[in-house]
C-alpha cells in the first residue's frame, strides 16, 4: 500500500482564507477537515497576524506533510493583488517556520485538474470537490477552492508529475 500523506490546501484571501485537509495514498483521497479563516473584522496587520496564527494552529493540529497553495492571480486591481500577496506571505512563512514543504499552483492548473477546464466557475469546483471526496453536501466556496488545491496536488503526485515543471510550460 502507498504511504499516506496529509495535504493542507489553502485558498488565500485577505478577508477569508479557505483551508482543506485531505489524506491520500489509498485508492481515493479522504476528507479530513475544511473551513474558512475569517478576518473581516480586523484591519491591517491584525488580519495578517490572525491568518498567520490560524494557519500555524492548523499545521500544529493536523501535521500535514505538504502545504498546497494557490498562486496570486492579478487581473485588474494591483492593490488587491498586493493585499492578497501579504496574506499569502504570512501563510508561506507559517509553513516555512514549521518545516512544511510548500507547493504552489495557479488557479488554472487547479481548475483544469479538478474540473477539466481552467476557467470553471465556483459552483463547478464545489460540485467536483463534493463528488471526488464523497461529501454529503458541497463545501463552502473558499473551503472548496482550498480542497481543490489539495486534490490538485494529490493528482500531480499520484501521476508523478512535478508541478513546478508544468508551470514552466510543459503539459501532461
From TrEMBL:
<dbReference type="InterPro" id="IPR036397">
    <property type="entry name" value="RNaseH_sf"/>
</dbReference>
<comment type="subunit">
    <text>Homodimer which binds Holliday junction (HJ) DNA. The HJ becomes 2-fold symmetrical on binding to RuvC with unstacked arms; it has a different conformation from HJ DNA in complex with RuvA. In the full resolvosome a probable DNA-RuvA(4)-RuvB(12)-RuvC(2) complex forms which resolves the HJ.</text>
</comment>
<feature type="binding site">
    <location>
        <position position="70"/>
    </location>
    <ligand>
        <name>Mg(2+) 2</name>
    </ligand>
</feature>
<keyword id="KW-0540">Nuclease</keyword>
<dbReference type="GO" id="GO:0016787">
    <property type="term" value="F:hydrolase activity"/>
</dbReference>
<feature type="active site">
    <location>
        <position position="11"/>
    </location>
</feature>
<keyword id="KW-0479">Metal-binding</keyword>
<keyword id="KW-0233">DNA recombination</keyword>
<feature type="active site">
    <location>
        <position position="70"/>
    </location>
</feature>
<feature type="active site">
    <location>
        <position position="142"/>
    </location>
</feature>
<keyword id="KW-0255">Endonuclease</keyword>
<feature type="binding site">
    <location>
        <position position="142"/>
    </location>
    <ligand>
        <name>Mg(2+) 1</name>
    </ligand>
</feature>
<feature type="binding site">
    <location>
        <position position="11"/>
    </location>
    <ligand>
        <name>Mg(2+) 1</name>
    </ligand>
</feature>
<comment type="similarity">
    <text>Belongs to the RuvC family.</text>
</comment>
<dbReference type="InterPro" id="IPR002176">
    <property type="entry name" value="X-over_junc_endoDNase_RuvC"/>
</dbReference>
<keyword id="KW-0460">Magnesium</keyword>
<keyword id="KW-0234">DNA repair</keyword>
<keyword id="KW-0227">DNA damage</keyword>
<dbReference type="InterPro" id="IPR020563">
    <property type="entry name" value="X-over_junc_endoDNase_Mg_BS"/>
</dbReference>
<comment type="function">
    <text>The RuvA-RuvB-RuvC complex processes Holliday junction (HJ) DNA during genetic recombination and DNA repair. Endonuclease that resolves HJ intermediates. Cleaves cruciform DNA by making single-stranded nicks across the HJ at symmetrical positions within the homologous arms, yielding a 5'-phosphate and a 3'-hydroxyl group; requires a central core of homology in the junction. The consensus cleavage sequence is 5'-(A/T)TT(C/G)-3'. Cleavage occurs on the 3'-side of the TT dinucleotide at the point of strand exchange.</text>
</comment>
<dbReference type="InterPro" id="IPR012337">
    <property type="entry name" value="RNaseH-like_sf"/>
</dbReference>
<protein>
    <recommendedName>
        <fullName>Crossover junction endodeoxyribonuclease RuvC</fullName>
        <ecNumber>3.1.21.10</ecNumber>
    </recommendedName>
</protein>
<keyword id="KW-0378">Hydrolase</keyword>
<dbReference type="Pfam" id="PF02075">
    <property type="entry name" value="RuvC"/>
</dbReference>
<keyword id="KW-0238">DNA-binding</keyword>
<keyword id="KW-0963">Cytoplasm</keyword>
Amino acid at each position: 500500500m502507498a504511504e499516506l500523506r496529509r495535504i493542507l490546501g489553502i485558498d488565500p484571501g485577505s478577508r477569508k482564507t479557505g483551508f482543506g485537509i485531505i489524506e491520500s495514498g489509498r485508492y481515493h483521497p479522504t476528507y479530513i477537515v475544511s473551513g474558512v479563516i475569517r478576518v473581516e473584522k480586523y484591519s491591517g496587520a491584525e488580519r495578517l497576524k490572525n491568518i498567520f496564527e490560524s494557519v500555524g494552529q492548523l499545521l500544529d493540529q493536523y501535521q500535514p506533510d505538504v502545504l498546497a497553495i494557490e498562486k496570486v492571480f492579478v487581473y485588474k486591481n494591483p492593490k488587491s493583488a498586493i493585499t492578497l500577496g501579504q496574506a499569502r506571505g504570512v501563510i508561506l512563512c507559517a509553513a516555512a517556520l514549521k518545516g512544511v514543504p510548500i507547493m504552489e499552483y495557479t488557479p488554472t492548473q487547479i481548475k483544469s485538474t479538478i474540473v477539466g477546464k481552467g476557467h470553471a466557475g465556483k459552483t463547478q469546483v464545489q460540485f467536483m470537490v463534493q463528488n471526488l471526496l464523497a461529501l454529503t453536501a458541497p463545501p463552502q466556496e473558499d473551503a472548496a477552492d482550498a480542497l481543490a488545491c489539495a486534490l490538485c496536488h494529490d493528482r500531480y503526485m499520484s501521476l508523478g508529475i512535478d508541478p513546478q515543471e508544468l508551470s514552466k510550460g510543459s503539459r501532461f
